[in-house]
Records
---
Amino acid sequence: MSNTSKIEIVSSQKRMLVVLDCFQDHQAILNIATNLAVKQKAEISALFVEDVNLVHLAGLPFAREVDRISIMERQMDQGRITSAMEKQARKIEKMLAQLQQQSKLQISLNVVRGHFTAEAMSAVAVDLLLLNKRGKRFAGVPQRTGKAYSLPLWVLYDGSLTAQRALMIAGELLQGQVLLNVVLKVQSQQEAAALKQKVLEFFSDMEVELHFYAEAEENFPFVLQNIKQRGCRVMVLGRQNPENTSKTALLFAEKANCPVLVVS
Amino acid sequence: MKNTLLDPESLYKTCRFDGLEFETTDQLEDIDIIMGQDRAVESIRFGIRLAGRGYNIFALAPSGTGKLTAVRELVGVEAERQPIPTEWCYVNNFTQPSRPRALEFPPGRGKRFKEDMAQLVEELSIAIPAAFNGDEYRARTEELEEEAKQREFQELNKLREEAAKEHVILIETPTGYAFAPVDDNNEVINADQFKKMSEQEQLKIQEVIANLQQKLQKLLKKFPVWRKEAKHKLKALNREVAELAVNHLIEELKNKYLDYPAVLHYLEEAQKYIIEHVRDFIPHREAALPFLEMPVEPNPFRHYQVNLLVDHSEKQAAPVVYEDHPNYANLLGRFDYQAHMGSLWTDFTMIKPGALHKANGGYLILDARKLLLQPYAWESLKRILQSSEIRIESLERSLSLISTTSLEPEQIPLDVKIILLGDRMLYYLLSYYDPEFQDLFKVAADFDESVPRDDSAVMDYARFLATIVRKEKLHPMTQQAVARVIEHSSRLVGDSEKLSTHLRSISDLLVEANYWAETNKHANILLSDVQQAIDHKIFRSDRIREKLYENIHRGIVMIDTQGKVAGQINGLSVLQLGEFSFGQPSRITATTRLGNGKIVDIERETELGGAIHSKGVMILSSFIAARYARQTPFSMMASLVFEQSYGHIDGDSASLAELCVILSSVSQVPLCQNLAVTGSVNQLGQVQPIGGVNEKIEGFFDICNKKGLTGEQGVIIPESNVKHLMLRQDVVHAAREGRFHIHAVATVDQALQLLTQMQAGERNAQGEFPKDSFNGRVDAQLAHFTTIKQKFLKNEQHKQD
């Protein structure tokens, strides 16, 4: 018998928190969230975070912005910014209502004003945390895009219990895809081999093509480079202590500009 | 009196095979299907061998004479002696795609070039992606990409750092970037906090932010320039990699075509184009390679395809092409169009060859009538023959029927011999009305519809029939059946001394006889089967004849076949209904009275008579005047009519009958109604031949036969028509038994003697006819008319005095 036994998340009603910022188009990520929630029989709580810094800035009398496309300077208007964020919130609400009707899931939406990271990481009693935040971009440089479902799935595995859950969730998220990129967070070659073996055993009864990336450094430079090249539908990782989890999740969200799913 | 009654043997010329004994056609050898057409054959041979400009051929003959078969056979033989022509391909013109290039190759080489190009594309499809997917290329592109990104990122970071020193951060807004002042916790200060600041602090913050924003704007403006630079670098890299993958493959191909400068030139252009459009060879995967745009195109490799118009690789001889539907496109070629994104487009791969391309270097056979019926086809063919170049043009475009992308492909030199097939009328019309026709079709090959029926021809004809039997896979024919077909062949041309060369009629007869042989369960085609085929063909077509004869029999159409009547005669005409013709007896009547020498042709007066008919009437008028009123005024007026005729009539074959009936009316000598008359007369009273003699005799025979043959009935025909007699067996049989009589006459007097049973009479030394002769009676009556007229004129003069 394998020493990596399959884990059942014992809970009658799981909860998934989807944290959304005011910059992204969220349709793709909400679709992923809904599909996963259906499989996990989870309820979805969507949290739309209005960037407080943006609101404060817009309130300043001299606030001006430089347009991303035209490079022209223009006045920042608090009313316009607030209205844009409200519009975004309404759009999300509409999407969620549609998804609820289709999936019959329990879906709720909260709109808060604050800092994205703080709001996301403050969530407690959450089984699955899905972050969708736009990372720092080069002005106007096109990002690696593609149809959400054609991009590969990534999972971070360090051998912990939550990482094993992350593997299981990643397996569910494959949705017909056969390629799964597994990032092994290790300190040595031996450790990498052992973890790889565990992952192989975990997926032994599934038709999955596994690509392994061993990474020792905390800021994952090698993995980030590969994600940039190959694209990423979603990065799945297990929740560790809040500080580490927050750091890793934000690293992938901002540097790789991909959605991050944190599994508790 | 000369015996005019014809011997039954002269009514039908039986076929005999002297010196050629055979039981069935199996024992006969094949013969050249072009029989008795020496003139036409020699003309065609002359035309196809003479290479001069404009020595194209027009083969003249009615349809069904087998001229196509003959021409094909002759041209086929000649084509085997000619070299296989070169092949032509259309390829892309990389600098002007709307003007595809034409490349010429020796036979078979075009196909190889097409395969070579396809092979090249296949190899490039592997080599190019391999080169661009290699680690080295990937590393270099990533390096360039990263370099470009880092340049922007670093410059932005510098600005961020500069801002941070002033407690300002760069934040992203939904539509751009903005600088915001922050507190010690790195939180953006709000409006309340800002208000609490001193005016000096507020001004400083504003100044700092304004300064930073200016710098940001300056920086962002540099980004497109940097990106362009990066793009150029990437392009140069792509070109370098592409050249490495492409050049050696194309050079290899160029070495194969060193002897073809045009091909080398094309390959050089292709090489440049491939390097410039290397993206075509990269599989379409989104963002597979940085900065390589992937346009949506159905098949990018089509640029390198070879459109081989005509493949001669399997040919053993020069091409012989018969275009059955010679419209503009089928003749000159066309462009096909494809719908793409709601509009029509075309390119060199959609150029379709026409018959001229296929026949180039060989022979093209066309039906002249079909060609002339197709809009623009004739004019285009002439233009091409004059320029000796094939230029494909979109007819739809020149007629403004479509307004979309079109092509102007390079012209292809033309070296073809055209053979037009058509009837004589068409040839003469073209010669007369088309000034270019004689320049372009200098050779006329005139096919004869008949050949002389001598012993040698009969033997050849038997072999000709045997050849058709084998070609059509029919049952063998017995000797008697062959003889019957040969006899029928003479009947088809209406001449016992000729044989028909109308291949279709003969071939159809054999096929139908074969059907009857099979129906009758005969192993061979027998004489009875041939006769059944002839009879059944007549049966299928003779509904009108049957109705007409029925009307005569019922007395609706009045034709007397017995008795004697003055001023009334049975004339004979022929009705042609499709391929079937039959004789129709008509009653011709004449009335005469005192007059001024005019003969009124009622048919002409009512515009139902044609010019030739009128000419015949004028001739007989002249004859009467010359014979009977040489020294006295011609004081008679006559009216002439075809009774119960309601349609147009023409021809002079009734002029003998008309002359006889007028003279009968003048003399009041009755004419025998048991005889029918056909023949034309000249001014000297000689009887001249007419057409359709067999049908006319049979027509009157059928009427008499239906009413009951009395043994007195018969037909008077011109003596010169005797050689044309090939009468039906029942007519010949009746003549042999003396129940029906055919008289052949050479003069009017002979006909009159038969019709009146009186001596015609000749002028004596004093110039007078015997009083009791027919001519004497006519002469006396005309003299009487003259006396009355003179008296009348005297009285009139006296009254006036």
Note: Chain A touches chain B through 36 residues (CB under 8 Å).
---
Amino acid sequence: MVLALILIPAVIGGGAFFVRNDLLRRVLLLAIAVTHAGLTVACWVWRPAATASGWLALDAAGLLFLSITSGLFLAATVYAVPYLRREHDRMTRDAVEGFLFSNAPEATFTGCLLLFLAAMTLVTVSQHVGLLWVAVEATTLASAPLIYFHRHHRSLEAAWKYLLICSVGIALALLGNFFLAVAAGSTPLVFSELAARSGQLNVPWLKAAFLLVLVGYGTKMGLAPLHTWLPDAHSESPSVISALLSGALLNCAFLGIIRTQQVCAAAGLGDFSRGLLVDFGLISMAVAAAFIVGQTDFKRMLAYSSVEHMGILALGVGLGGAGVFGAMLHAVNHSLTKAMLFLVAGNILGAYGTKSTANVRGVLRVLPVSGVLWVAGLLAITGSPPFGPFLSEFVILKAALDAGRTGVAVTYLALLAVIFIGMSTIMLRMAQGVSVRVEPRRESWTAVVPPAVLATVVLMLGVYLPGRLTQLLQETARLLGGM
Amino acid sequence: MTPDIILILVVLTNLRLLGASRIGASVRTVAVQGILLGLLALLAHHGESSSSVWLVAVGGAVLKGVVFPWLLFRALRSAEVEREVEPFVGPIASLLAGVAALGVSLWLAQRLPLPEGAHSSVLVAVALFSILVGLFLIVARKKAISQVLGFLVMENGIYTFGVGLVRESPLLVELGVMLDVFVAVFVMGIALFHISREFDHIDTHELTTLKD
């Protein structure tokens, strides 16, 4: 089953480059997304056994991140197929500088999208240090062409920065993996084995390994100050790709960090590794806050918000205890909320033809459904009750207080408040008022149903946590040394 | 030929890269470095020359010594760029920075405890030196193709480390890493082509529109 999850999108994705019929390709894309989601649901019922001598196994953490990825991919596909039909063979006017540009061939887009899904799936099921690295690098390579879907100079710049910065970052993570191999000696480089035989690990090498892995995967995850590629890539790629990058890809890199952290904690380096995560977490939140306040491009604002939330995830794991549970829950909440917001941002961009916050007014009137979702998304992403992120951010706050880290807790709350003010100023101004340039219009159901479903789930997670999900989150937290 | 001679040659290729003023020469130097590392991989496993060691060493050498230069020269031709390196930092200053980096690498390598089985800390030093030179080339060169070369040199440094110190890394992972690097260079080559078409040259200082 694990193999099927990886191979189906990989093989069909490779084939999609050569399918000339547009309709067939779109049907294939939808079919794969549905199949993948179905197989993921099946994994909840029958947890598949480890294959390939323990290299590929779906543990609790893997299943959690696989479910996020698969669910978001399905939502993104439902949204993307009509988008591709609309954009097909047409010159589009650029939203910023007003020139005309064409798009990349749709076959390339679909093929890369499916390969991207395969690579992310491989990340979630890899238990071997080296295999995980190969998978994370593969996600970069599969997604770079997606960022350059709109063929113009800004998206090219974004794709080039993404490719180079992330490749260099991930190369450092490879060095970290070699350090880990040196530290391990003859122990096989499977995470569970390393954690089990942590007594035999060479501590100085392990320390250096964790630093390099944190910097390497942290670049990909968007932890400040290594986040520089992130706002560019998110603002220039099509909104549906931004949704997948923020909601699914950043989590994958995070998984690489927490799996290595698990080894460090087992080897008695927990204080060292957790301390670093707390520092990176707070720095990311601070940098995000500084750039969100007064941001003039709403997709960049959402991208910086992702930097903030990646900081919260690192902080949660760094605090340990209940914070790990909070971080895992927050990963779910953030992914769903942020993907939903990017999809709505795509609707707004489509209607207004601009990314500038100053030129968008009256979304609630022009796009009634998207407008309501935009405001709901604002409340959710800033951690207001009754949405899911409120709950998870609260758990992390409580973990900080329980650990006696009052300073961390106060900084955390202050930064959340600044970001709340910054984002609500921008987003409410966009939602309210009357637009003089754009007429109210009907929205197609494919453009609003995927974000609406995501919003409903986020709302539900704030009110009621299903027992099975709680169980999985607890299992993940235990695996990663929390609780 | 002992591994140490190869390591010294790797250091020399790095210094040549720092001082080079033509892109063609830089691409060829990186190719030579790739072949040297293939040899190093063979020598480091002397005595236990299994088929997988041969496969990885020869495969790596062919990839880095033949395939990558071919891909990069093709990108260079299609981009019709001028063959000057156009550095932000001149060759003399680059070389001085290189010497400083070499010193730092030697000092760092002394400080890390040597793992069992490694015969000298020179290998660690050379690996670190290559990584630093790669990073320097990425930052200090104007043309996008130089940044790709910098990435390759950095990757070579990491590979040096892996060859010398990691006892048994599984074949599958080695092949996976190789495939990833290949696809990375391939995708970067395509990006180079697009950059040259979009801007009529491949200077990255044009790629500075996006900022806050």
Note: Helices of chain B lie at 3-19, 23-44, 51-79, 91-111, 122-140, 144-165, 171-199.
